[in-house]
Amino acid sequence: MPICIQNELPVKNKLLEEGVVVIEENRAKNQDIRPLKILILNLMPKKEETERQLLRLLGNSPLQIKVEFLHTTSHVAKNTPQSYLEKFYKTFDEVQYSYYDGLIITGAPIEHLEFEDVNYWGELNQIFDWSKTHVFSTLNICWAAQASLYYHFGVKKEQVDDKIFGVFEHDVLIENHTLTRGFTDTFLAPHSRHTKIEEEKLPTISELDVLARSEEVGTLLAATKDLRKVFVTGHIEYDADTLHNEYVRDKNSNLPIEVPVNYYPGNDDTKTPKNRWRGVAYLFYHNWLNQVYQQTPYDLTELSK
């Protein structure tokens, strides 16, 4: 089934080129079906790149999905024109009385700041709180995963001496869990972050299951037992060249950066990297959407009851 997005969203043509099935809003309205409603709070600077990465994964599902985008009003985007946001994005004021099957909150390059020092922390707290009664399942990525663990469970983040940067091996910890069903026992996934979470605190949180972990870089996947909150500390949505682009950017800016771990063939940054985590990414998002579809109420207003 197709993914339903706004008719003029620029990434649509790129998705079509990749073979992702896309349906325009006008056509979707004539289909007698309730699509899953997914809201994406996009905190990344390069919004179109993140849109494409997430829509590609959401589009690989037999379900029809209606996607909307959200941006914060308490932060002025430097890399995205205001006209683009006004055309394709909504604000919290516009969605606060709406209900969604799923909410995705992306990462953000602000790890050097304490959570309370982020200029949209208050607005994000509002969204976290709102999601409890207006969203069935919230998927938090990288910085958002850390922020959500801190907000809901008091799990702190800690700065690391060297950036966690590369493609790392992870072990599945709970066999046949809904979100990791079909995963191999070990799998690869990218990370790109300057902080880590308080790993020792996770086992003390009774509502939380740790689903996948790396001996090198810690937890990758975790979720509450009711699957209403899901946490991904890495970036399985990344393209093959995303880590490369980050590496070149920092290297050209004379920032301290090492070659991404286990990324370039032969550890040679002149060679083209390959995407070795794409299958896991598609499977994870398929599993998440499927469990949302199975458990979310048909009448979403029941979430607030």
TrEMBL record:
<feature type="binding site">
    <location>
        <position position="192"/>
    </location>
    <ligand>
        <name>substrate</name>
    </ligand>
</feature>
<dbReference type="InterPro" id="IPR033752">
    <property type="entry name" value="MetA_family"/>
</dbReference>
<dbReference type="Pfam" id="PF04204">
    <property type="entry name" value="HTS"/>
</dbReference>
<feature type="active site">
    <location>
        <position position="237"/>
    </location>
</feature>
<comment type="pathway">
    <text>Amino-acid biosynthesis; L-methionine biosynthesis via de novo pathway; O-acetyl-L-homoserine from L-homoserine: step 1/1.</text>
</comment>
<feature type="active site" description="Proton acceptor">
    <location>
        <position position="235"/>
    </location>
</feature>
<comment type="function">
    <text>Transfers an acetyl group from acetyl-CoA to L-homoserine, forming acetyl-L-homoserine.</text>
</comment>
<feature type="active site" description="Acyl-thioester intermediate">
    <location>
        <position position="142"/>
    </location>
</feature>
<protein>
    <recommendedName>
        <fullName>Homoserine O-acetyltransferase</fullName>
        <ecNumber>2.3.1.31</ecNumber>
    </recommendedName>
</protein>
<dbReference type="GO" id="GO:0019281">
    <property type="term" value="P:L-methionine biosynthetic process from homoserine via O-succinyl-L-homoserine and cystathionine"/>
</dbReference>
<dbReference type="GO" id="GO:0004414">
    <property type="term" value="F:homoserine O-acetyltransferase activity"/>
</dbReference>
<keyword id="KW-0963">Cytoplasm</keyword>
<dbReference type="GO" id="GO:0008899">
    <property type="term" value="F:homoserine O-succinyltransferase activity"/>
</dbReference>
<feature type="binding site">
    <location>
        <position position="249"/>
    </location>
    <ligand>
        <name>substrate</name>
    </ligand>
</feature>
<dbReference type="GO" id="GO:0005737">
    <property type="term" value="C:cytoplasm"/>
</dbReference>
<keyword id="KW-0808">Transferase</keyword>
<keyword id="KW-0012">Acyltransferase</keyword>
<comment type="similarity">
    <text>Belongs to the MetA family.</text>
</comment>
<feature type="site" description="Important for substrate specificity">
    <location>
        <position position="192"/>
    </location>
</feature>
<keyword id="KW-0028">Amino-acid biosynthesis</keyword>
<feature type="site" description="Important for acyl-CoA specificity">
    <location>
        <position position="111"/>
    </location>
</feature>
<dbReference type="InterPro" id="IPR029062">
    <property type="entry name" value="Class_I_gatase-like"/>
</dbReference>
<keyword id="KW-0486">Methionine biosynthesis</keyword>
<feature type="binding site">
    <location>
        <position position="163"/>
    </location>
    <ligand>
        <name>substrate</name>
    </ligand>
</feature>
<dbReference type="InterPro" id="IPR005697">
    <property type="entry name" value="HST_MetA"/>
</dbReference>
